[in-house]
Amino acid sequence: MKRKRIAFIIVALLLVTSAGIYFYYGFLFKEARNIESEVPDFNVAATKLLKDYESDPKIADSLYLNKTIEITGKVTKETDSVVVLENSVFCLFTQKIKQKLIGNKVTVKGKCIGYDELFQEVKFDQCSINKQNN
Hints:
Blueprint lengths: L1 H27 L13 E4 H10 L1 H8 L3 E11 L3 E4 L3 E5 L11 E12 L4 E13 L1
Parallel strand pairs: 1-2, 4-6
Antiparallel strand pairs: 2-3, 2-5, 3-4, 5-6
């Protein structure tokens, strides 16, 4: 009787452990997307993107949020890892930007993370420069 009880406890612990591992890797743990290798869902001008968010943020979120997007616009601000296009699209890069871009027209690919009403900017992360037009 005692052996059956111990065997039952061991089997139950194995099942619970297996279910926990399956749940963690199947649902909770997801690898980060590689935005640089993804095909963009949209190609849009920075000014149009801002107009879409200013006119109706909920509709714009349904179109753009968490999507890979190529944005084209003139660089108005830059730091080591941030570029702002047309004073309205904030692009956070994963690596430091080596070349000076201010004043140039560029196409940036990144993931839209939403609209910041305080700064009136559309925010992107995991950005990379796809094309630079002087």
